[in-house]
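tokens incoming
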């Protein structure tokens, strides 16, 4: 640690004064002064630590969290229990695309909460159908999934993918009554969720091993390996599920050529093509859907979304074309909370905002600002920064070593960043973050690199 080096240098200097040791001490002191820790992690005796300690025994330990406790959000910032302000480059993992506590969304949420929150799927309400209609119409209008026909509304990304997998299995049963068309193909580094079906399509031993055996009938391929598709996707394949940009797997982009070839192969064998755009969709790339740039022959039969759909309120959706929709019958699937009027009315307001052309153009302009900052950092630390991947405001900086010290150094200077895949820093800020705020954050990130590399 830089602090340990400073202490050692100071101790050595006090014992054996020399010009060299004095120079080292002055240099380290100067570095500390120029790059101070402004937001140190709360001490064990702090109010935050005491609160965490009082709650921890009652919580199943499925997460490892840093010490700050966040109690308020506004726009691009989070505030902790001590009132300290943190610039957020994570947006709740690509969830708060309109920023924290967006006033317009909050107003809609409050109005609907006072009107009708839940009545169950035993009855109609105005908003489940309105959201389904809006998703289908905006998808087709803005260049995505040209034959989108209907939507199933649920509560999360895992649920959306679980529905997609079930729907595809049902299609396979109808197309091939022998029952052999049941295989689901996914790809290395994919992340599709943690329910047993979606987890079975997430080929990461860290996630799967504790809960094995997985649901049978899942195969794994290599993203962007066109030559392997003929053997990978066969007459037994009912579905291929793929992220156009893998988020959790390290912000790895599926090439246009691969997605075109994959779609072609799916059509050849009668398999359903399922795009998981839970993290990369809803204008995060600067297009309404990440696949909107592709010709319609590469569009999916199933499209899943969640995260940004509610700007923080839990909701997900599975959008399907008529070929899939006509094979799903009453009773094939269901949900207690999915499609509740509160979540759906909020999502309608969010979708309208995220579909705005000016917002989508802004995403592409803000990508340029990020890349300029990344180029500057890569130029300073070429041995550490290997490459930058992604599109729009889903970006990954691939490092040659564990970035956890950089994440900590950034947090202790007031910037929140997260990781993905192997040694990748992931950047998924709100889509309405200003260019000035982005530059502010990049400046802090550079300071974090300085602190981490000097440690």
């Amino acid at each position: 640690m830089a602090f340990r080096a400073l202490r050692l240098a100071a101790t050595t200097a006090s014992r054996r004064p020399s010009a060299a040791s004095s120079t080292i001490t002055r240099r380290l002191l100067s570095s500390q002064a120029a790059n101070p820790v402004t937001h140190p992690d709360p001490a064990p005796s702090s109010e935050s630590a005491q609160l965490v300690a009082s709650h921890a025994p009652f919580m199943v330990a499925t997460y490892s969290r840093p010490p700050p406790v966040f109690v308020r959000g506004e726009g691009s910032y989070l505030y902790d229990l001590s009132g300290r302000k943190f610039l957020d480059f994570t947006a709740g993992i690509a969830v708060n695309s309109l920023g924290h506590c967006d006033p317009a969304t909050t107003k809609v949420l409050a109005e609907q909460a006072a009107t009708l929150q839940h009545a169950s799927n035993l009855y109609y309400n105005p908003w489940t159908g309105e959201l389904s209609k809006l998703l289908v119409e905006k998808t087709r209008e803005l260049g995505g999934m040209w034959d989108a026909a209907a939507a199933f509304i649920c509560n999360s990304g895992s649920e959306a993918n679980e529905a997609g997998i079930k729907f595809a299995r049902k299609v396979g049963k109808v197309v091939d009554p022998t029952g052999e068309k049941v295989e689901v193909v996914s790809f290395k580094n994919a992340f599709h969720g943690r329910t047993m079906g979606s987890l079975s399509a997430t080929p990461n031993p860290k996630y799967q091993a504790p809960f094995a055996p997985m649901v049978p009938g899942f195969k794994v391929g290599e993203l962007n390996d066109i030559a392997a598709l003929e053997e990978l996707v066969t007459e037994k394949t009912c579905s291929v599920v793929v992220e156009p940009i893998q988020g959790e797997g390290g912000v790895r982009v599926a090439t246009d050529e691969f997605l075109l070839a994959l779609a072609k192969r799916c059509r050849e064998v009668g398999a359903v093509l399922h795009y998981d755009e839970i993290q990369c969709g809803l204008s995060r790339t600067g297009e309404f859907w990440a696949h909107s740039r592709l010709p319609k022959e590469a569009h999916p039969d199933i499209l899943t979304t969640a995260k940004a759909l509610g700007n923080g309120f839990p909701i997900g959706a599975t959008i399907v074309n008529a070929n899939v929709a006509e094979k799903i019958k009453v009773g094939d699937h269901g949900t207690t909370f999915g499609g509740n009027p509160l979540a759906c009315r909020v999502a309608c307001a969010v979708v309208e905002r995220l579909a705005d052309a000016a917002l989508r153009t802004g995403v592409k302009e803000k990508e340029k600002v990020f890349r300029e900052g990344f180029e500057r950092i890569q130029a300073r630390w070429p041995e550490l920064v290997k490459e930058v991947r992604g599109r729009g405001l889903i970006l990954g900086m691939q490092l040659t070593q564990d970035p956890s010290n950089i994440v900590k150094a950034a947090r202790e200077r007031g910037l929140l960043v997260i990781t993905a895949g192997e040694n990748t820093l992931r950047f998924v800020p709100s889509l309405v973050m200003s260019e000035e705020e982005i530059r502010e954050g990049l400046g802090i990130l550079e300071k974090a690199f300085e602190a981490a590399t000097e440690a």
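note: The chain has 16 helices and 17 strands.
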